Every structure is written in structure tokens, then in C-alpha cells.
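#help-structures
NK: newbie question, is this the right format to request a structure? protein is DUF4410 domain-containing protein
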Amino acid sequence: MRKIYLSTLLALSISLAHAQGFESAKQIFESPKLKTEIVKHKTVAILPFETKISYKKQPKNFSAEANRDQEKAMSKSIQASMYTYLLRKANDYTVTFQDVDRTNVLLKKAGVYDKLDEMTRDELAKILGVDAVIGGRFETEQTKSEGAAIASAVMFGGLGGKTGTGSLFMTINQGSDGELLWRFTKTMDEGITSSTDDLVERMMRKVSRNFPYTKS
């Protein structure tokens, strides 16, 4: 039993290394106004990320309602993970980031928390009292169950540890007029040990050199 456990751990480690190696190249858009506008920003809010979970092959006993609940939970979790990451490295940035609990309370008080796709970014920035908003979308397609991933990881030395792929889009919009200033896109393989914290950590490592608010 102990040998199987150790083999599984080793396979998972190899799987993560392979997953990062097969990730797609990042794509970055920068507005011509980016450099002149971000120097005016002092406070930035992080919105809940729009999240979509789909399956290459729909699992047995699939529940659309449970899937929606999972999407909502992941949306808030990515938002919280990103805030934690940015807060941890606060001294590296030229702006402060609004506490996400405050952000969500203000959105709920305004009656727009579940209607973000019906609001413009400048309208949201006004509600939140910030100079810019960070938002985005995360789409994931699950290709196999966690149990199947563990089994194939043990059998094939980690190559089977991928459970799906995820595409993450991160944007920064100007608070005054809602104009898109910056966008980052990255597609990442998801391993069986992935969490939203891991996901955001991996993404922000890729973003760090190009993140507009990073001190020079």
C-alpha cells in the first residue's frame, strides 16, 4: 500500500511538470493609452470572474443546477485567490486593491452582483468607487474524472494526470469610461491537484513581467 501511495505522489509531481510544459503561449493586449492612464490609478477592484464549466463527455447523473452552483463557487474563489496573491505582493505594485469582500457587498447592495454581464465597467467602477476594475473569464472543459486521472498517472508515469484544460482571460478596464486598457489570455492544463489558488498562482507568474501595476 505504501509503495502504491509513493508511486502516486511521484506520478502527480511528474504530471504537474508535464502540464506546465504543454501550456499554450500567453497573449497580451495593451491599449495605446495604457501607460498614460495607469499612473492615475490609486485603487483597483477585482470583480468575480465569469466561469464556465463544461465536459468533453457529460458525466453520469449530471445536474445542470449543481454545475451552475459549482461555476458560481469557482467564480468567487478565483476572485479571492487573485486578491490574496496581489495582497501578498502588495509592495510590488503601484496601486492598492479593494478588499474583495467589500467589492462583493457593494455589488450586492446595488443589486448587480448577479447581473455583472448587464453592466458596463465604468458603471461598476462608479458603484465601487475605484479607478479601474480587474475582471475576466475562466472556461474549463473536463476530460476525465479525478479517479481515472490518478489511475492513468500511476500507469503512464504522469502523462495521464491531466483532467482538463482551462482558458483564463484577465482584463483591466478604465474606471472613468470603461475602456479596455489591458488583456491577458492563457490556456492551461489542469492536473488532479489543481485548485483555484494553484491556477491563479501559475497565471500570475506568467503575468508578473507584463502586469501594468508592477513597479519598474
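mod (FA): yep, format's fine, and the C-alpha cells are attached above. The radius of gyration is 19 Å.
NK: thank you!
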